[in-house]
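Q: What residues go here?
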């Protein structure tokens, strides 16, 4: 079966399409005929070698996290052969998803939303899990809350907006000026160009979710109510100064959280249910075949698009 392997860390051209052996599965796992995957920022970091202390310093690597396909072998009591599934393997230490057949743990897998294609389902797991765990588990979102979502038209921001809607939140979003019409179509009540953040003034929010990862709580302290949480995907760790500020804020300001996304069956089932009711719908910016994975990664690095990039097998 074909897979996109990294023989060395580096630029997108480092991917090589090769035929490899079908992997073996252990108890509690399934073997999936993978139909689609996606590109996430963390996949780019892994490809570049930013996580090499965890993934290893040499040898061939199969990376990628999101998957969607059909079970072809099962050692799980939860899934049977023929089930259409989706899910997320650990992006750094899990079983890579840029392949025609992949291994997945049963707890990182759920039945695919019946109303979605394999490609649509494959762009949801990592970003929707991140959004759910940020808003609900870490942010403690409540019904009718005033919520600020920074980076509202990105891969994580779009499902975050949709999840916040299910809580009847009043949503303010930040994005680039050219994406403001898209943001308004998502139903965001107030959209701000991220180049004009001062337009927020002293407006208060019950929850701030920085899906862009560029900020820390100190940047937004005037916009938080006394009990509000600030949740981030990265905590403003774009540079050494940002890292230092984030560490200080995490240590001394208990209302700041950096989400550590993890796949679990219960949350994936929630995502499936929301997708099947239409409350959570994916937005695919572009679709590439596995053979053009390098082009997909180049597009991810360039940025400037809304939604996610899908990979089809």
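A:
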């Amino acid at each position: 079966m074909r897979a996109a392997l990294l023989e060395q860390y580096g630029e997108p051209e480092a991917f090589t399409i090769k035929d490899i052996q079908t992997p073996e599965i252990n108890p509690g796992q399934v073997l999936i005929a993978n139909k689609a995957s996606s590109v996430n920022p963390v996949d780019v970091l892994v490809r570049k070698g930013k996580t090499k202390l965890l993934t290893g310093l040499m040898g061939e690597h199969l990376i990628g996290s999101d998957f969607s396909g059909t079970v072809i072998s099962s050692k799980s009591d939860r899934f049977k052969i023929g089930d259409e599934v989706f899910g997320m393997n650990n992006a750094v230490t899990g079983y890579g998803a840029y392949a025609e057949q992949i291994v997945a743990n049963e707890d990182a897998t759920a039945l695919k939303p019946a109303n979605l294609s394999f490609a649509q389902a494959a762009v949801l797991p990592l970003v929707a899990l991140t959004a759910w765990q940020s808003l609900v588990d870490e942010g403690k979102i409540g019904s009718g809350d005033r919520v600020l979502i920074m980076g509202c038209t990105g891969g994580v921001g779009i499902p975050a907006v949709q999840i916040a809607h299910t809580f009847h939140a009043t949503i303010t979003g930040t994005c680039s000026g050219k994406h403001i019409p898209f943001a308004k179509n998502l139903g965001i009540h107030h959209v701000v160009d991220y180049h004009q953040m001062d337009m927020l003034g002293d407006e208060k929010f019950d929850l701030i979710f920085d899906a862009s990862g560029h900020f820390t709580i100190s940047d937004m302290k005037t916009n938080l109510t006394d009990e509000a949480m600030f949740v981030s995907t990265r905590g403003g760790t774009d540079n050494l100064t940002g890292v230092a500020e984030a560490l200080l804020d995490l240590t001394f300001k208990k209302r700041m959280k950096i989400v550590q996304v993890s796949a679990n069956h219960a949350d994936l089932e929630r995502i499936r249910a929301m997708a099947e009711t239409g409350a959570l719908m994916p937005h695919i910016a572009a679709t590439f075949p596995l053979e053009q994975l390098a082009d997909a990664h180049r597009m991810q690095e360039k940025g400037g698009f809304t939604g996610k990039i899908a990979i089809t097998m």
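A: Context that may help when evaluating the design: The chain has two domains: 2-122+283-312, 127-258. The two ends are 11 Å apart (CA to CA).
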